[in-house]
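Need residues for this backbone.
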């Protein structure tokens, strides 16, 4: 909705409210007139806030008459208008299109480096003074360390966005325990034992369907979402993208380290022996997920908190299916870890052109960070997001027809996760998921590059996109190129801007610490 459209809509609302007051006054005494006037004054404070989010779950966007929207309106005086890209469109391109056409959201989740662009252009609203006054629950919930990371990411040291904060690891190395039982092996403790387990998964029909269709381990296109295979070698990875961590005493890009080279050698061997899904570098997300759901994958890497639907699908074909967290097997000469990024990633931002809506946007955001509203935020509206069984609220599984629940809080502690598990997983699955988190937490480590601003990549978009790394990884692993060409990749990476980017990252790290 454009600014002009907002003004027209606002004028219509005011006109209707004035008409309501006139009619009310003609039929009321002085007391009711005063009450009506007070209602009108309250109504005039209502503001519509356009909230842009991408990658939403199943469901339809709630309209202004949706009970969830109305409940938030009643509590905050702000009408939550959820925006998201159309199905099948590219989220980054769609957000860029909105800004290019001046169809601005009032508050949004930046993607594709949008936060960097707005900050550089002076088009982002600084929030330092606004947050403590209008969003105190946001301000006080987020650790000071996270605000320091945000300040260090901007050239003037100001706060231009609210960061995502996760104090527990989100991702884990996952394993089918029932497959492990079926091949008669214990949990692998070393790299060789892990390889032996994958061989057994390949050859011994652990899914019990009489076919040799098992994929011992698998990943997705460009070599993403198989971080467990890199993690064993101490490579900082995030969904298949090398991150920045301490190597040889200083912060470096993990993609050019000896750790990475050794990890690629191992992964190449798995591919040659058909222990890694031969379609790994072709798998789209939905194809990869379907393979896991259909009991074809034994070892993979994903988010335990999102296991519910996948696990239910597994059990349709394997009643005894059971998923566990796999402690990272030990590799001689390396210290393995699960990459943890806890704070600093941009979560919410207000464009400067929407400054007139900033207070309302922050009031809305604050509502979702206020723990007194946790029950409503978690369960939503009865009949839409939850039902009541035996006096207990139970979340309704999302479908293409159910309204999407509103939300804005992205701050997760262990206590928050325990509550989420208890309230979103059936009782017979809760301990399974908690055990996975316990294993992944033991192996997780927050990397030195957590919160690194995307501005370090200015002028070097190819390095930021990891395209060069993905090309060499793919061709080396599938055997098209020899492993010796990894050294060529390192030289090309540094000569194409890696030296400059590394210097910027090291300067940022010194400033942060």
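Answer:
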């Amino acid at each position: 909705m454009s600014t002009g459209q907002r003004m027209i809509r606002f004028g219509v609302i005011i006109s209707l409210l004035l008409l309501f007051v006139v009619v009310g006054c003609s039929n009321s005494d002085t007391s009711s007139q005063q009450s009506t006037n007070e209602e009108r004054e309250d109504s005039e404070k209502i503001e519509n806030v356009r909230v842009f989010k991408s990658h939403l779950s199943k469901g339809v966007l709630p309209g202004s008459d949706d009970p969830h929207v109305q409940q938030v309106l009643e509590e905050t005086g702000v009408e939550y208008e959820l925006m998201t890209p159309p199905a099948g469109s590219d989220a980054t391109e769609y957000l860029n299109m909105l800004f290019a056409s001046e169809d601005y959201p009032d508050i949004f989740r930046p993607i594709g480096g949008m936060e960097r662009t707005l900050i550089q252009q002076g088009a982002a609203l600084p929030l330092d003074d606004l947050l403590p006054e209008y969003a105190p629950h946001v301000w006080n919930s987020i650790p000071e360390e996270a605000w320091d990371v945000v300040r260090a990411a901007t050239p003037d040291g100001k706060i231009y966005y609210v960061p995502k904060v996760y104090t527990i690891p989100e991702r884990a190395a996952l394993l089918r325990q029932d497959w492990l039982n079926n091949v008669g092996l214990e949990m692998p403790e070393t790299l060789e034992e892990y390889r032996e387990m994958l061989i057994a998964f390949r050859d011994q029909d652990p899914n019990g369907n009489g076919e040799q269709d098992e994929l011992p381990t698998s990943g997705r296109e460009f070599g993403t979402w198989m971080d467990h295979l890199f993690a064993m070698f101490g490579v900082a990875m995030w969904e298949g993208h090398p991150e920045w961590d301490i190597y040889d005493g200083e912060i470096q890009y993990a993609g050019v380290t000896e750790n990475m080279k050794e990890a690629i050698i191992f992964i190449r061997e798995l591919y040659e022996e058909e222990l890694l899904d031969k379609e790994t570098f072709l798998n789209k997300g939905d194809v990869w997920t379907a393979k896991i759901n259909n009991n074809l994958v034994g070892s993979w890497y994903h988010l335990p908190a999102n296991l519910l639907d996948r696990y239910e699908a597994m059990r349709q074909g394997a009643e005894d299916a059971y998923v566990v967290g796999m402690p990272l097997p030990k590799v001689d000469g390396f210290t393995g870890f699960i990459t943890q990024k806890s704070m600093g990633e941009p979560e919410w931002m207000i464009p400067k052109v929407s400054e007139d809506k900033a207070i309302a946007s922050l009031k809305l955001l604050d509502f979702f960070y206020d723990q007194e509203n946790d029950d409503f935020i978690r369960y939503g509206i009865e009949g839409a997001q939850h039902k009541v069984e035996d006096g207990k609220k139970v979340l309704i599984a999302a479908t293409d027809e159910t309204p999407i629940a509103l939300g804005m809080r992205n701050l997760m502690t262990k206590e928050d996760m325990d509550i989420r598990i208890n309230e979103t997983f059936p009782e017979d699955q809760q301990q399974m998921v908690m055990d996975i988190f316990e294993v992944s937490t033991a192996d997780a480590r927050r990397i030195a590059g957590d919160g690194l601003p995307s501005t370090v990549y200015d002028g070097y978009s190819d390095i930021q996109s990891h395209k060069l790394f993905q090309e060499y990884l793919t061709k080396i692993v599938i055997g098209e190129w020899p492993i010796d060409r990894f050294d060529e990749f390192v030289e090309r990476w540094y000569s194409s801007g890696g030296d400059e980017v590394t210097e910027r990252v090291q300067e940022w790290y010194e400033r942060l610490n």
